Backbone:
């Protein structure tokens, strides 16, 4: 969930100066319409890592908009009055009326996350899950009541947070902002990250998705915040007044040119000589792992996705070579059968889950819904948006049962794809591999990139992370796949 | 949740013989249309108390319908194959295709409920809640995928279950059906009931409500099952083919003439002499309770609902007389203010929650949504249907914070209401109490009764039960209210 927010996004001064004025105009206009229509309210939740610029982002946003119609609530420790009522009372009483925007620093996520990170109790995760369940019901109710919920998570990687705290300390004017508590919390960074990820994953829904914002660069932070609020408002204002359907909130718009795909180093290579040795090493490791005593209680589900001609088939074969065929099943996913169409979407994948001691390799997978089905319009926007959380649930069920879930996106450059397409057309035994559809998909390259970025953003989790494999060089890609699979299995079996 | 299923419903033979043939025809016709359209599947979950006739109800239903298109799954202990996959795998693989009906005995509720009842672990409720959360997400996904979910809970009261097990044992032909396990489970009846209630309450949603069926009388059981399936199917078949919106499932239709209102003994009385003594006693008790040391950490929320002219005001005054005015607040609920209209529905009630050591008496309440707003069409069906679970959440938040929640429905007969209306018209100082609206509401008497029955069915919980007060006699009603309030407070403060 945090991949995109660790890429080092930034916006240069000139771009910022150019983009802010029209953004402000548009924000004010949307806010004016909101105030005129008065048929729904907006709630902004502001959460994230200390030092990630939450306050600055909100200050900038309120400066850009008409602050008379924005209510900012900084919720610290509860007052007497508040402690004597159920915990949610303080938030209920601060809910903005229709036509207004309510900003909540410190909100219904704060205490459950912090309590879970700080707790030493054995059942702290169960307590977190219970809070999450209540939050989900609360937010669903708000959405049903017509409220627009925008939930921002300002993120810093661990090194970035350290750097940020140190630089604040060095600045005599800002030193006061770094407290002992900040450093104490920093020590718990990994724990905080894991707990937050769980909370975010379980509360990202079509009507209330999390928007994760990298907090390093001030201009980037501000632009993402402003543009996301604008897009959310505009989308909601397009639904007719009085319509009460729960509407999906659009994803954060891209603000600079960086994404998880184009920041990938596609030049990485492995010589044929080194490849031979590495392949032997990792195929050997994999074979031993599949015969490991403990593997009898576990299984593997591996997902292979990637650009057309990125070499999924070749990578899958290199895995298959290392495994006893009786333990392995390769499931190619094409159009669903009649039987499959007659059931819920995930049924066609559930049916292929391996027994213990077995591996299933999916050549394309359930991610089709948020890739090809999204881009080609084979399903409604509502359906692919809800798929993210349904997929996360599915994968969580697998991992909890001891299934090792690995997911590969094999990425090649547009030029490399062209080269491979042409070679397929000119080589008779590869000719069957290239179709008109491949050429049609290629024309939608950018839409697919956007879909891949959203997919990684929403479904790369601690339990089932995405591995994005630079695949211009087949040797490099195949070894990366073998090695990642072995590492994931070792972690589970040790 | 189980009130209605303990009233002793039954159907006589003649009625049954008359009603079954047209019901069978209609069921077959609906099933045929389902099979023709093939755009959604139906899942029936069969759960409940041992001995409540689950098997018989399903056997009858399948005999009535075309059993070729019904798949019955009796899920006992998982097989090897199943144990080696995540727990939900066995249910996934048994999901029926579009056009068919899948019946699940032993389903995703069975293990979580039984495990929780049997467990001695401290955190068993947290484990149950986690399972409930997963079930909610799973069922929501099924509904989004277009599936019609009908969840039946066959219920027996504790004495009824004992009687049923004994009568089975006496019958030589049926003795085999009563096992040691049944009697062991019977010892856990109260625990089982509490855990089941929690599970049912948290998983009753507009798109997947529980239908609780009293299991004593075979004919009644069969008719409710058949009619509910029919109404659910017919409602779903009315939505156009291919429409994917999550549709609410209708409530179970009334099958015999008994309900929680008309089984009430309205003749109960208290002489003026006895009333004086009782009133003194309970007002005194109440006063002491409000000055109890522990009440400083608690508070009271009391809801007064009832027929027009049932005497809500009088009952409230008798409570108020016993309490220091500084601790008490009476909140009359009329039409919402502009401020209130601009926020989510429950906001206007949250704002009046008392501080600790205080009592708030609501003269009408949040139940307006499922009573007057439902009957008068002031809100959409979708909105009042989702209100039940939102209200349960709200009340659970209160009780968990130590608030004592008591809810009174003051019930009078139609004749008694007429008498009181006329007396109000003829008594000058009461004249202000009677309006044209009262006469209009009276014309919808039956609709209000249906709404009250549904309300009690769905929102009377162990944490916040409804007390239905026979109020033809004001003395009796007032004492019943005082006594119930005192008992609830004593339970919390002791």
Residues:
């Amino acid at each position: 969930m945090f991949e995109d927010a660790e890429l080092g996004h930034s916006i240069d001064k000139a771009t910022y100066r150019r983009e802010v004025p029209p953004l402000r105009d548009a924000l004010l206009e949307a806010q004016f319409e909101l105030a005129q229509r008065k048929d729904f309210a907006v709630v902004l939740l502001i959460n994230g890592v200390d030092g990630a610029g939450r306050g600055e982002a909100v200050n900038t946003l309120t400066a850009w908009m008409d602050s008379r119609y924005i209510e900012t609530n900084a919720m610290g420790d509860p007052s007497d009055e508040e402690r004597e009522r159920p915990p949610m009372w303080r938030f209920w009483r601060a809910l903005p009326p229709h036509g207004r925007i309510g900003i909540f620093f410190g909100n219904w996520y704060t205490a459950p996350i912090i309590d879970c990170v700080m707790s030493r109790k054995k059942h702290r995760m169960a307590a977190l899950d219970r809070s999450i369940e209540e939050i989900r019901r609360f937010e669903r109710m708000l959405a049903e009541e017509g409220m627009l919920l925008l939930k921002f998570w300002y993120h810093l990687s661990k090194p970035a947070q350290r750097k940020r705290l140190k630089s604040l300390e060095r600045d005599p004017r800002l030193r006061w902002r770094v407290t002992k508590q900040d450093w104490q919390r920093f020590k718990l960074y990994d724990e905080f990250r894991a707990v937050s990820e769980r909370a975010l994953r379980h509360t990202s829904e079509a009507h209330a998705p999390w928007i994760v914002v990298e907090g390093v660069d001030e201009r980037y932070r501000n632009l993402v915040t402003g543009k996301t609020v604008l897009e959310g408002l505009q989308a909601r204002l397009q639904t007719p007044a009085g319509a009460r359907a729960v509407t999906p909130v659009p994803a954060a718009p891209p603000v600079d040119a960086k994404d998880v795909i184009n920041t990938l180093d596609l030049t990485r290579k492995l010589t044929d000589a080194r490849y031979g040795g590495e392949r032997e090493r990792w195929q050997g490791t994999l074979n031993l792992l599949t015969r490991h005593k403990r593997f009898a209680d576990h299984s593997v589900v591996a997902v292979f996705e990637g650009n057309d001609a990125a070499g999924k088939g070749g990578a899958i074969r290199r895995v298959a070579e290392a495994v006893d065929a009786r333990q392995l099943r390769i499931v190619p996913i094409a159009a669903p059968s009649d039987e499959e169409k007659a059931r819920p979407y995930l049924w066609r994948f559930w049916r292929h889950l391996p027994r213990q001691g077995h591996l299933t390799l999916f050549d394309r997978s359930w991610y089709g819904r948020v890739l090809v089905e999204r881009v080609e319009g084979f399903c409604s926007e509502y359906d692919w948006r809800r798929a993210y959380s349904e997929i996360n649930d599915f994968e969580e069920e697998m991992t909890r049962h001891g299934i090792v879930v690995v997911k590969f996106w094999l990425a090649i450059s547009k030029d490399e794809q062209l080269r491979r397409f042409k070679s397929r057309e000119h080589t008779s035994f590869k000719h069957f591999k290239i179709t008109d559809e491949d050429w049609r998909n290629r024309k939608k390259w950018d839409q697919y990139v956007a879909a891949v970025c959203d997919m990684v953003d929403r479904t790369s989790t601690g339990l089932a992370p995405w591995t994005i494999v630079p695949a211009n060089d087949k040797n490099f890609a195949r070894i990366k796949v073998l090695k990642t699979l072995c590492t994931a299995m070792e972690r589970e079996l040790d």
Observations:
- Chain A has two domains: 4-238, 272-493.
- The mean pLDDT of chain A is 90.
- Chain A touches chain B through 57 residues (CB under 8 Å).
- Residues 154 and 213 of chain A are 5 Å apart (CA to CA).
